[in-house]
Amino acid sequence: MENGAGPKPPWGGYGSFWNFVSKLRDEDGGIPQVLDRSIMANRGGSARTELYAALRFFLLIDDDKRPTDTLRMLAENPTPERMRAIVEICYEPVIDLGLATATATQVGDALVGMGATPSTVVRARTFFLNAADHTGIPIGNTLKTKRAPSTTPRRRSRSKKTGVGTPSEQPEEQRPKLPPVIGALVAKLPEGDWSEAEARQWLGLVAPAIAYDYELDLTKLQSSSSGGAS
After folding, report:
1. Distance between CA 211 and CA 218 in Å, rounded?
2. For the chain, which residues make up each domain, given as ranges?
3. Contact (Cβ atoms closer than 8 angstroms) between residue 58 and residue 67
4. What is the secondary structure of the chain as a DSSP string?
5. Phi, psi (deg, nearest 5) at residue 132
6. Which of 43, 108, 116, 179 could tie 124 with a disulfide, CB 3.0–4.6 Å?
7. Mean pLDDT of the chain
């Protein structure tokens, strides 16, 4: 996987990836035939993209998003030890640096050689370091002290009145409910493509819904919106 050939190094949250894999088996011991959009629970578009990138990089799904034998083996008994073997194979160019003395810049350069882009390399390095930490791969102090900031989403504090703002990856039973009108709007988002007319119709409902649920002045809200768009 050198020089950008093959799947690119993942750059999302390692914890989100591992949580998905470790809970993939159902009570009967099986895993879905295809890891399509319906299996991704309530993950948003960017979160799905990041998760698919990790699954492809570790060769856990094929081009049709079907689970590989490697994923079946891992999901059967999702332990850090089993994941370590996968990490060591897929990150071979990084491992070969000698992590006891390698620097953060060296790791970043190796990830770029594997296909990471300037916009994802810092997060890709964080993903790798978190994977190494979880699976017990030793790293030296030069990497521990230069670790990039975590990409794990943080819970944002919002008004108790709205009850929104928790990360989309939080378990559904712990996620606060959206206000009814806003929830109805979200439910109307189409699964696939939609026309410009349908988009305009949906957008036309947003301002009144927000004004109603958050007790805002609709006239001022619409005026501000049209003024910003001009």
Report:
1. 5
2. 2-144, 178-229
3. no
4. -GGG-SSPPP-S-HHHHHHHHHT-S-TTS---SS--GGGGTT--HHHHHHHHHHHHHTT-B-TTSPBPHHHHHHHHS--HHHHHHHHHHHTHHHHTT-TTT--HHHHHHHHHHTT--TTTHHHHHHHHHHHHHHHT----HHHHTTPPPP-PPPPPP--TTT-----TTS-GGGSPPPPHHHHHHHHTS-SS---HHHHHHHHHHHHHHHHHHTT--HHHHHHHHHHHH-
5. -65, -40
6. 116
7. 79
Q: What is the pLDDT of residues 1-41, one digit of tens each?
A: 445 567 999 999 999 999 999 998 875 668 899 999 888 87
Residue 133 has pLDDT above 50, yes or no: yes
Which two structure tokens, joined as six digits, stand for 76? 């059967």
Q: pTM surpassing 0.85? A: no
